[in-house]
Amino acid sequence: MPRGYHGLNVPGRVSPRDGRGDDVRQVIIIGSGPAGYTAAIYAARANLEPLLIASSVEAGGELMNTTEVENFPGFPEGIMGPDLMTKMQEQAERFGTEVVYDDVTEVDFSGRVKKVTLGSGAVHEADAVVYATGSAPRKIGIEGEARLSGHGVSYCATCDGFFFRERTIAVVGGGDSAMEEATFLTKFASKVYVIHRRDELRASKIMQDRAFANEKIEFVWNSEVVDILGEDAVTGVVLKDTVDGSTRELPLEGVFVAIGNDPRTHLVHGTLDLTEHGTVWVDGRTSRTSVAGVFAAGDVIDPTYRQAVTAAGSGTVAALDVEHYLASLADAGAPAVDAAQIDALPDTADAAHAAA
Ligand code: NAP
Q1: CA 233, CA 144: separation in Å to the nearest integer?
Q2: For 354, phi and psi rounded to 5 degrees?
Q3: Do the beta carbons of residue 349 and residue 326 sit within 8 Å?
Q4: I need a labelling partner for 321 at 20 to 30 A (CA). Which of 245, 278, 287, 354 fits?
């Protein structure tokens, strides 16, 4: 029996929840950070009945590792990262999002109907997918780093800098992120070491000059952090000289690791086009990827800003693009739509922008 098109809540169409056994969703959202949940809120309010795959252990994304979030609009007193994510989830569920806690192990975006396989073995199908898997801060990979994460070890100066007023801290890294974070952290800390493994920075000249000119910043060259010391809070680091191999301890109270971020693209290598930054390529300011029906949002498309608020905005874009895509499928005469018809679809995002 040919698969029916169960996409839109329009006359003549049926919902995937109508008990007829066909389980093709309108949209699956992969990722449960601000981008994923915001896409879910918008998609659910548009009656798209999204299924959101939230990961088995990392549900909620990077904000689950953050303490107080003070820069998310609408929370003048601040809000704990995990509480913010719980609220986003509740808001998404309130409008009909179904959340599944499992890891996506495989995606198949080759047909019009997209397939998403989970760790449990379950295979879910949908007309559209929003890929919002975020990015992960690169770790140094030493024991004290994991143990003291959230207790003096941080990966986000914007999130945690405020807690280091009048403290001596270090930023690890020699790129733009490290310079930016070090400079930002001098607003709070009394002293900021920048610990870099070489004797020259990777950062752009303007960022370097800004850091060099800052009296609170001291550079520690040719040094690798090989251990982070402290029982319940950071008390220092052990540095290894990359030239002569000697080690020494440097007392301090906080370590900000800024050695780069890796967008979580492992599921879509070879499937979606990536940019030179390793992020998923999207068409201009839209969320459209190189594959029709697959949309991407949040940190996985963003090499620069990587904020909860910008990710949430990006999730909104994805949900609106999905709506237009599904409407275009319906206009094109699904269920008989085929690849040729998809190619012939109007540029939905451009049409939306033109209409705005
Ligand atoms: P990045 O440019 O890749 O720099 C990473 C830095 O961390 C490098 O200095 C690298 O050392 C060091 N590093 C990497 N792995 C390490 C390890 N295991 N142990 C110790 N050090 C390690 O990353 P980024 O600074 O996050 O910047 C990423 C992109 O975003 C760049 O294109 C950057 O220009 C952009 N960005 C722009 C701005 C801005 O313009 N405002 C701000 C932030 C980021 P080596 O130098 O020895 O390789």
Answers
A1: 10
A2: -65, -35
A3: no
A4: 278
Which listed residue (156, 176, 299, 302) is catalytic?
A: 156
pTM value? 0.71
Catalytic position from the list 127, 160, 176, 299: 160
Which tens digits make up the pLDDT trace of 83-131? 999 999 999 999 999 999 999 999 999 999 999 999 999 999 999 999 9
Alpha helices in the chain (DSSP H): 34-45, 81-94, 143-147, 157-160, 176-185, 205-212, 308-331, 339-343, 348-355
Question: Burial level of 65, CB count in 10 A (0-12/13-18/19+)?
Answer: middle
**Mind giving me the DSSP string for 290-350?**
SSTTEEE-GGGG-SS---HHHHHHHHHHHHHHHHHHHHHHHHTTTTS--HHHHHTS--HHH
The per-residue pLDDT for range 235-249, each reduced to its tens digit, is: 999 999 999 999 999
CA of 335 to the centre of ligand 1 (A): 48
- The single residue listed with the structure tokens 């040094």 is 223
CB 293 within 8 A of CB 114: yes
Residue from 159, 176, 302, 321 carrying the catalytic annotation: 159
User: Atom 18 of ligand 1 has which residue's CA nearest to it?
Assistant: 140
Residue to mutate (ligand 1; options 304, 305, 307, 310; most atoms within 8 A of CB):
304
Planar angle of CA 208, 211, 213, nearest 5 degrees: 110
Q: Where are the alpha helices (DSSP H) in 186-307?
A: 205-212
pLDDT greater than 60 at residue 34: yes
pLDDT score of 339: 46
Atom of ligand 1 nearest to the CA of 174: 9
Percentage of the chain with pLDDT > 90?
74
pLDDT over 90 at 178, yes or no: yes
Give the per-residue pLDDT at 136: 86
